[in-house]
Each structure stands twice: as structure tokens, then as C-alpha cells.
Design brief:
The chain is mainly alpha-helical. The two termini are 23 Å apart. A hairpin with a 4-residue loop joins strand 1 (4-6) and strand 2 (11-13). It has helices spanning 15-55, 63-102, 106-121, 125-142, 154-180, and strands spanning 4-6, 11-13. 78% of the residues lie in helices and 3% in strands. The longest helix is centred in the N-terminal third of the chain and has 41 residues, at 15-55. The protein is built from five helices and two strands. The radius of gyration is 23 Å and the shape is elongated. The protein has a domain at 12-103.
Amino acid sequence: MSLLSETRNSVRMDPRLEYLLERFEHEAEPYDKLAAYALLLIPVGAVMVALMLLLSGPIVAGLKLYSAIAMVMGLPFIAYAISLYADKKKHEISNTRYKPITGICMCDLSQLRYHIIRFEKSDNYAEKARHARMIEYYKSKIGFKGLSNGNSNYSTRVKLHYFYFSKLFYTLNTLDQLCSI
């Protein structure tokens, strides 16, 4: 049984892995929203600073002008810091709750599924090629592919992947048993 099944034009994930991924995405959803709101901070903040300047009286070169410029220039850094915090929390959820079970970073698996869906929906060849390249990248990053590429540590990697995947299959079978009760 394979976690990823491939045909010429499609790639499918194991349904149990899809279930775990859905649970992860549900748990990480507040942090995704936080990152989305952080991106809205830049244009909304810039408009608010401009309105504040217009409503506060005449603009002269001085403290008010320099503080407005500093606020507008600081908005992207604040948004970036919020996005970094959200990503850190998502990786923390992935590493503490799911990676010990699956041996796979759920953030990478989520990106893999996104590119699989986009690959299947894309209409032209260029989009398909871009998403296929990203699918191959995330598959090799996760460890679904690339074990037999001639590396000197091939047996160590095979043992490591066997350990992770056997732990994953055991956990998925336990989840199946719990769901059937």
C-alpha cells in the first residue's frame, strides 16, 4: 500500500493521510487567517496614516512627517513579523502533534496537496509543468521519491523511511479502528 499513487496525469494521496491533513489544516486555520489579516495591514495602515496626516492639520517638514514616513515604512515589517509568527505556530502544531505520528511535516504535505489540486485543474501546459515541478519538489522534500537516486546513504534513508512509514501505518490503522467504533 502506497501513501501516494501516481498515474500519468494525476497523483492521489492515501485517504487516511488526507484525513490527518484535514485535521491539521483545521487546527492551523486561525494562524492562516492571522497571516491573511496581516497582509491587509499594509494597505489599510497606509490609508489610515494618510488620513491621519490630512486630518491633523498642515503638513510641514518635521516630526509629524517623519513619523508618518516611518509608520508607512514599518508596516511591511510588522506584517512580515506577524506572518512569521503564524508560520512558526503552524510548524509547532505540525512538529508536536503530527510529525511524531506520520514522520512528515504537514505544512509540506499541505503544499503538496495544493499543487496536486492545481495541477489537475490547470488548463495549459505551462501551468501543468510548473505545478508538476512543485509536486516533484515537495515529494522529494517529504521523502516520497528519490530514495534510489544513487546516494551513498541509501540504506540509512530506506531504514529511516521504513521506520516513519511503519509508524504512520500503525497510527492510521489505529485511527481506522477508532473511527469504526
